[in-house]
Write a structure and sequence with these properties.
The complex is a heterodimer of chains A (323) and B (361). With 323 residues, chain A is α/β, with parallel strands linked by helices. Chain A folds into 2 domains: 181 residues, Rossmann fold, CATH 3.40.50.970; 127 residues, Rossmann fold (3-Layer(aba) Sandwich), CATH 3.40.50.920. Chain A has 13 helices and 14 strands. In chain A, the strands form 3 sheets. Chain A has a 7-stranded mixed β-sheet, with helices on both faces. Chain B is an alpha/beta fold. Chain B has 2 domains: 304 residues, 3-Layer(aba) Sandwich (Rossmann fold); 34 residues. Helix content of chain B is 43%, strand content 9%. The chains are: A alpha/beta (323), B alpha/beta (361). The structure holds thiamine diphosphate (TPP) and magnesium ion. The site of magnesium ion has 6 residues of chain B, from strand 4.
């Protein structure tokens, strides 16, 4: 069946809730309303208000209670309405969710998924457009997953729900309704920790994830005309990173462009760049280039200028080719 | 401590207090409520026409917003949230500044940095809000605290919704203000919903004003559709604060007649009949009836006033629409007091891409 990304979220939740009685969904407006983006649309009607829970407006309690539920055998999938509003729960995530397994010597290990829409593209300004993945990748104990298409989303969300580590699952708002694609019906899994080669090529590697895969693919198409064969790797799981795929591609092409919408400084690209200089230095033919959101808050009026565009990616590819 | 010291039921047909204001002031109040209503209505229409990207209307909450601001002095600092058209306009924000903000154009005092409906202007002592719920409450506490230390005669007021009272930020700010007897007012517009979640799913307490007693501060529940009752409650709270008797939590009981924002569909969580009966308690209708009873107002005057305001508002929207978007450099302004090297570098790059225009969709 053809689904948008937000429908794929819904489908994955539905399948997992059917399959596994332990799975519950909770968050602000997720029940009757079906979520502000409609990701949980219709779930309460099917699974009841005990398993699809409208909570009061308090993110720390949503995450904290999810941790508690999981300790008692449930598998909570919490929705944070926008990643921008996850910060009240930061303490619960960074001090509790991520470290509970460790500090208890493995005795108490919260099995919780936190889903949150993120990113620019819908004119949300400073508080509805952020890309905050770095905070979570930086926090030991959390897995971080970001899908780039509807089918990928279904498979990765399903795997996230089954994974026994806490997962921060970030959904690009830009992709929610802009693409439709064939999504496998029924059970469908895409493994965590494995990157995807979205476009094999031999001259340059683009390392990217989320909605920036699309932007990178457009840039890659344009570069065909200049006889440059671009490989696009969709990272999919930022933590743990599929280092083999990344290094193999770097060794193959020797030229690397990293694309993400999150700010540049201390962004995920900085980590990949450091890893490649450690593990593939001898193979690199040019400096690694990052194309990212700027190191500013996301502006309302100039949001389009803030996000990486195919033009910016193309310019980076030309630069690395010309080196 | 005394939750419910001014408790008028929301369904009372008339303001239950005899007017504390002169005829001229009453008409001014009415004028401000109408400006707020029409600004919201026109903005919603402009959004439907695709001329405005996003908007947060306060339709139905005019009495709460206008009545409370009217009780303040210009030196008092206001900390609104995103639902503040009545607040900004009651503070006499010119329609130009108001709609330049909504469009985020180059003349917007916030430089197009902030989302529409997040009005602020330091010349009016309205502190520009963020979007996260209730983060501004402790700021209002801090400003009032500093003013108290400096022996300045001013108060602060923060606005938030029923849903906001569930947040940790609310707890932290109100508790702090209680301990130090901070001259601040926590003004809660209980408009019955937090997006789709009704207030009875937000808290097990029926009167939000009761929350005040847990912090040892005064709690007041007021009919938020009664502009004079709101005015009086706020005025009293202000005097209490200036007397050194600490903060007040005001719960203004009202109803959000419109959508949560321009991207909401209330029919998903409440019925037409509920909305229709809420419209019967429209604070503007109620106040105009009151003014008519006093002999201050009539239908004809009403029509003339509304037509005039509609024209002013339409013109302000059209004008704001014609003002160009901010220049690319503004994207990098105000991140720091002075721009560090890396932002200079990024600004140069951004300029190049604007110059070479986007081609690929
Ligand atoms: C910390 C945080 N969580 C979630 C949101 C998303 N959100 C925006 S408004 C809103 C509902 C607020 O309801 P209420 O406090 O009653 O104010 P109202 O909008 O009704 O005026 C929500 C959940 C947010 N802005 N901030
Ligand atoms: Mg509300």
């Amino acid at each position: 069946m053809e689904l948008t990304l937000v429908q794929a979220v819904n489908d994955a939740l539905r399948e997992e809730m059917k399959r596994d009685q332990r799975v519950v969904v909770l968050g602000e407006d997720v029940g009757k309303y079906g979520g502000v983006f409609k990701a949980t649309d219709g779930l309460q009607a099917v699974f009841g208000n005990e398993r699809v829970i409208d909570t009061p407006l308090n993110e720390q309690a949503i995450v904290g209670a999810s941790i508690g539920m999981s300790l008692k055998g449930l598998v909570p999938v919490a929705e944070i309405q926008f990643i921008d509003f996850i910060h009240p729960a930061f303490d619960q995530i960074v001090s509790e969710l991520s470290k509970m397994r460790y500090r208890s010597g493995g005795q108490y290990a919260p099995h919780v998924v936190i889903r949150a829409p993120f990113g620019a593209g819908t004119k949300g300004g400073p508080y509805h457009s952020q890309s905050s993945e770095s905070y979570f990748v930086h926090t030991a104990g959390l897995k971080v997953v970001i899908p780039s298409s509807p089918a990928e989303c279904k498979g990765l969300l399903t795997s996230s729900i089954r994974d026994t580590d806490p997962v921060i699952f970030m959904e690009s708002k830009r992709l929610y309704r802009s693409v439709r694609e064939e999504v496998p019906e029924g059970e469908y899994l895409v493994p965590l920790g494995k990157a995807r080669n979205a476009r094999p090529g031999k001259d340059v590697t683009i390392l990217t994830y989320g909605s920036m895969v699309q932007v990178s693919m457009k840039a890659a198409e344009v570069m065909c005309e200049e006889d440059v064969d671009v490989e696009v790797i969709d990272i999919r799981t930022l933590m743990p990173l599929d280092i083999e795929t990344v290094v193999a591609s770097a060794k193959k092409t020797g030229r690397i462009v990293i694309v993400h919408e999150a700010p540049k400084t201390m962004g995920f690209g900085a980590e990949i760049s450091a890893l490649l200089s450690e593990k593939a230095f001898d193979y690199l033919k040019a400096p690694i280039i990052r194309v990212t959101g700027y190191d500013t808050p996301v502006p309302f009026s100039l949001e389009d200028q803030y996000s990486p565009s195919p033009e910016r990616v193309i310019a980076a590819i030309r630069n690395t080719m010309a080196y | 401590m005394n939750a419910g010291s001014l408790s008028l039921t929301p369904s009372k047909p008339r303001p239950a207090v005899s007017s504390p204001l002169t005829g001229k002031q009453l008409l001014r109040l009415y004028y401000l409520m109408i400006v707020s209503r029409i600004a919201d209505e026109r903005a919603l229409i402009a959004h439907k026409q695709g001329r405005i990207g996003f908007y947060v209307p306060a339709v139905g909450e005019e009495a709460a917003e206008v009545g409370s601001v009217f009780a303040l002095s210009p030196e008092d600092w206001i900390f609104p949230d995103y639902r503040g058209s009545g607040i900004a306009l009651a503070r006499e924000m010119p329609l130009k500044i108001f709609f330049d903000q909504v469009l985020g154009n180059i003349e917007d005092v916030l430089k197009g940095h902030s989302m529409p409906s997040h009005w602020g202007d330091s010349s009016l002592n309205i502190v520009a809000p963020s979007s996260p719920i209730c983060t501004h409450l402790s700021h209002a506490v801090g400003v009032a605290w500093a003013a108290m230390m400096k022996r300045e005669k001013m108060v602060t007021i923060s606005y938030f919704g029923d849903g906001g009272t569930s947040s940790g930020e609310f707890h932290g700010a109100v508790n702090l203000a209680g301990v130090f007897k901070i001259p601040t007012i926590f003004f809660c517009r209980n408009n019955q919903y937090a997006i789709s979640v009704p207030v009875d799913r937000q808290t097990a307490v029926t009167n939000l004003a009761e929350k005040a007693s847990a912090y040892g501060i005064t709690g007041v529940r007021v009919d938020g559709n009664d502009v004079l009752a709101v005015y009086l409650a706020t005025k009293e709270a202000r005097q209490r604060a200036l007397r050194g008797d600490g903060p007040t939590f005001i719960e203004a009981v009202t109803y959000r007649l419109g959508p949560h924002t321009t991207i909401d569909d209330p029919m998903k969580y409440r019925g037409k009949t509920e909305e229709e009966s809420a419209w019967k308690r429209d604070p503007i209708l109620r106040f105009s009836e009151y003014l008519t009873t006093l002999g201050l107002w009539d239908m004809e005057k009403d029509q003339v006033l509304r037509n005039k305001i509609k024209e002013d508002v339409n013109l302000a929207i059209t004008n704001a629409k014609e003002v160009p978007k901010p220049e690319i450099d503004s994207l990098f302004e105000d991140v720091y007091s002075t721009s560090p090297w890396h932002l200079d570098e990024q600004r140069m790059e951004a300029r190049r891409f604007v110059a070479s225009k986007r081609q690929i969709q």
